[in-house]
């Protein structure tokens, strides 16, 4: 407490004003915290509010698990931020869908975490500042800004990394799915039944792709045309290669050409592209190993090879 007062005193210059300002900030923070907790507790404990939020989130169906209080609180906090920015919310929703988060409240929860995490980390850092010795005012402010920035960017970095990892898994697994689909189509199954069969076969080895194919089959069963369901698949995955496959299948269905031939040709191209990607990554390994070899192995080699000679030279010059 005294440390924070000294920091404020350096900024303001008047000790009496510093104490009044500090007391006012603490009082305002306590009032806002009490009001926020009261509003959230009232909204979460009200049966009507809980029922409305459950219906809005799609949990009116009995077999789905009800939302927890923490999740509903995050939805309420994030909804205040994302309600006025429809374009940003749409972009964020696309990012979350590509990362595998399909919940209707995923955008609200995402923005709530991005808002609350920097504040929580900043508050913890402020409490830990008095335990850091010889900390100047400029360094303390810089540390707070750094912690706030890390808290703001960490959820976005995590979601982006999850998106890239998921897209890589889908891209690697898709040629195998196409091969299985070719076998099913050429054996007499229609395209929706082939997609359903492939989804069942790949549910263990590639659960991400199996879930996407199962969603395609569910949309077809609901009455959506196959081309539209495949377009939705391309939008959910975000892969350009799948968009190309959807265009080829749409043309094949429109003009009455063989779907099996189209799938076989595209599966071969897809497999060649995957092989080229693997060769490209293998070619980059040599360049990427240069820096670990220089910074990790070279100092050890230098000490082992030249260290004894240097010690002998120092001994000889020490006797002189």
Structural key phrases:
320 residues, mainly alpha, Receptor-associated Protein, 12 helices
Report on this model:
The protein has 320 residues and is mainly alpha-helical. The chain folds into 2 domains: 2-157, no CATH class; 167-275, Receptor-associated Protein. Helix content is 84%, strand content 0%. It has 12 helices and no strands. It has helices at residues 2-12, 15-45, 47-57, 69-82, 86-99, 106-128, 137-186, 191-201, 207-221, 226-237, 240-255, 259-319. Helix 1 packs across helix 2 (15-45) and helix 8 packs antiparallel against helix 9 (207-221). The longest helix has 61 residues, at 259-319. It is flat and about 85 Å long. It starts with a helix and ends with a helix. The model is unreliable at 58-67 (pLDDT under 50).
């Amino acid at each position: 407490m005294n440390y924070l007062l000294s920091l404020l005193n350096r900024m303001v210059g008047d000790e009496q004003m510093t104490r009044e300002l500090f007391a006012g900030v603490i009082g305002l923070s306590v009032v806002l915290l009490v009001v926020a907790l009261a509003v959230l507790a009232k909204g979460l404990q009200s049966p009507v509010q809980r029922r409305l939020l459950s219906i809005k989130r799609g949990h009116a169906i009995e077999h789905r698990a009800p939302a927890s209080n923490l999740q509903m609180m995050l939805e309420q906090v994030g909804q205040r931020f994302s309600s006025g920015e429809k374009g940003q919310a749409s972009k964020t929703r696309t990012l979350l869908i590509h990362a595998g988060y399909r919940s209707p409240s995923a955008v609200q929860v995402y923005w709530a975490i991005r808002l609350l995490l920097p504040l929580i980390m900043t508050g913890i850092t402020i409490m830990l500042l008095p335990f850091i010795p010889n900390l100047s005012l400029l360094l303390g402010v810089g540390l707070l800004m750094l912690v706030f920035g890390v808290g703001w960017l960490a959820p976005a970095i995590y979601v982006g990394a999850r998106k890239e990892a998921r897209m890589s898994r889908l891209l690697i697994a898709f040629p195998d799915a196409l091969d299985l689909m070719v076998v099913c189509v050429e054996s007499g199954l229609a395209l929706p039944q082939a997609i359903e069969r492939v989804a069942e076969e790949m549910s263990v080895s590639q659960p991400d792709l199996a879930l996407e194919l199962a969603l395609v089959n569910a949309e077809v069963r609901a009455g959506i045309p196959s081309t539209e369901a495949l377009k939705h698949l391309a939008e959910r995955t975000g892969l350009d290669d799948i968009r190309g496959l959807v265009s080829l299948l749409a043309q094949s269905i429109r003009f009455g050409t063989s779907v099996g031939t189209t799938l076989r040709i595209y599966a071969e191209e897809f497999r060649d592209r995957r092989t080229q990607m693997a060769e490209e990554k293998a070619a980059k390994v040599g360049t990427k190993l240069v820096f670990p070899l220089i910074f990790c192995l070279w100092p050890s080699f230098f000490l082992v090879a030249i260290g004894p000679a240097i010690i002998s030279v120092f001994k000889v010059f020490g006797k002189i």
